[in-house]
Amino acid sequence: MLKGFKEFLMRGNVIDLAVAVVMGTAFTAVVTAVTKGVVNPLLAVLGSTNELGLGFHLVPSKPATFIAVGPIVTAFIDFLMIAAVLYFVLILPMKTLKNRFGTTKAAEPTEIELLIEIRDLLAKQSADARAVQNAEALAKLDRVDPTVGSAHPVTPEHGRLSNRHDRTQSVESRS
After folding, report:
1. Which helix (H) or strand (E) is 57 found in, with range?
2. Which of 16, 45, 77, 131 is most enclosed, with most CB atoms within 10 A?
3. Among candidates 132, 162, 129, which has minimal Cα distance to 145?
4. What are 83-117's pLDDT values in tens digits?
């Protein structure tokens, strides 16, 4: 159970994701400081002279109906700055390094190629099995005749083969 968890953690994608989250969080603080210190004052210049900032009132006499556009613009600029920095600092260099030094995966065989390989392996296995059967049949023919008690094959007229050529033909005719 722990071995599988360790393998999961050590996969490249999980570690890359953890690094990206930590760096993204740290960089978000930097971008937020820049937008509060630089962008918000610039938006205040564009906005009205009231204390609510850039925006407008739906009902001019009610301050609760103020729609603040400044925070929306600030959040949008934050997002664009974070996305741009992460792309140009992390993603683009990693893609360049992967293209330069990365290994290409071997092409996976198609279904047809796998079926052809299986067919060839089965044919080879069948041929090997036939060769073993033929060898066993020849070995049986070379055994001693127990009725005679001698170590010679009996002639064909007694039911046994007399030479190896006849035995080979007999085994091939049985196959």
Report:
1. strand 55-57
2. 77
3. 162
4. 887 788 878 888 888 888 766 667 788 899 999 99
Residue count of the chain: 175
The residues, any chain, with a CB within 8 Å of residue 169's CB and separated by 6 or more, are none
Question: In this structure, what DSSP letter does residue 64 have?
Answer: G
Neighbour-count burial for 41-77, b at 16+ CB within 10 Å, e otherwise: eebeeebeeeeebbbeeeeeeeeeebeeebeebbeeb
Strand-pairing partners, residue 57, are 66
- pLDDT tens digit string along 34-91? 878 887 777 777 765 566 677 777 888 887 888 888 788 888 888 888 788 778 887 8
| Cβ proximity of 161 and 173 under 8 Å | no
Structure token digits, residue 14: 């999980």
